[in-house]
Specification:
Blueprint lengths: L3 H10 L21 H8 L3 H8 L8 H11 L3 H11 L14 H9 L5 E4 L5 E4 L1 H7 L8 H8 L9 H18 L4 H13 L1 H8 L8 E8 L3 E11 L7 E6 L5 H10 L3 H9 L15
Length: 289
């Protein structure tokens, strides 16, 4: 699903040679750095770097990986990804999907914000009532990556769709490096690549992103634009699961929108979403886009 060679090639192609003291002229045909330049700047032999990029050099030292990260300008997330790809011992089994009953109780205690429990494949394993109303469908069985790329392109639930796609592909890249032998993850990536041109283009860039927190705007067909803030809480049991909470700042239109959304019943909300809604209009008086 992921490989060291592809990651190193994309990273070195993005380094401006002049930023590391290499003079270039109009005859240069290589985008970014050459292999021998990376090797020289990292303090390793050209042969060793070539073998490393081809996956034939095993167990590189932390010093070598740190040097490569410095030359290639990797951030902390990319440095960790590089380490997993470079080490042959990285054969972590995909974690199971069983949710402890105590976690479900915690999930239901979150009543004023949509909250989900997701795994590394971005499968929604459970969600509270408000999350179900936000997505307008039963949550168990929903995969948010598939939802984003294959189902919601036209309907427009994700108000900042382009940024969301970058985040999702970056997360799946990290997951592929951490769980390289997860057949369900491989199948999902293959399905997305077959069904979405944008996914294929972004996947080829080999970018990695850690999901931690950030703004997440949704355009709900009933209550309009919801400018929410997402926080991801990794569960401390090595399950690969996260608790994701989408909150609205106090006194904002998004808080009012969540209050309106919370007032819907699950049945009436799903029925209204499935019906014809005039684009750009809210079906609830006072709602806006």
């Amino acid at each position: 699903m992921d490989d060291l060679a592809g990651f190193l090639r994309t990273r070195r192609s993005r380094v401006d040679p002049s930023s590391v003291g290499i003079r270039v002229d109009s005859r240069r045909r290589v985008a970014g750095l050459r292999r021998e330049e990376v090797a020289h700047l990292s303090g390793v032999s050209v042969d060793y770097y070539v073998r490393l990029e081809q996956g034939r050099a095993t167990q590189p030292s932390d010093q070598v990986l740190d040097a490569l990260a410095r030359v290639l300008g990797l951030d902390g997330t990319e440095r960790g990804h590089l380490s997993r790809l470079a080490c042959q011992r990285r054969r972590a089994k995909a974690p199971g999907g069983r949710i402890r009953p105590e976690l479900l109780r915690v999930l239901e205690l979150v009543v004023d914000a949509p909250a989900l429990i997701m795994n590394h494949r971005m499968d929604v394993l459970a969600g509270n009532r408000l999350a179900g109303l936000l997505f307008g469908r039963p949550l168990p069985g929903l995969n948010t990556a598939r939802h984003l790329f294959l189902e919601e392109v036209e309907r427009g639930l994700y108000a900042d769709w382009d940024t969301c796609t970058l985040d999702v592909v970056g997360h799946l890249r990290l997951a592929a490096g951490q769980y390289p032998e997860d057949p369900r993850l491989a199948s999902l990536i293959g399905e997305l690549a077959m069904g979405s041109d944008r996914f294929r283009r972004l996947w080829a860039r080999a970018d990695v992103r850690a999901r931690t927190h950030g703004n997440k705007p949704y355009r709900h067909p009933l209550v309009g634009l919801l400018e929410l803030h997402q926080e991801n809480f990794a569960l401390p049991d090595e399950s690969g699961m996260e608790l994701v909470v989408l909150s609205a700042a106090p006194g904002t239109p998004a808080e009012d929108g969540l209050r309106l959304l919370s007032g819907l019943s699950a049945d009436s909300g799903a029925a209204a979403i499935a019906s014809e809604v005039v684009p750009g209009r809210s079906a609830i008086p006072g709602g806006s886009v």
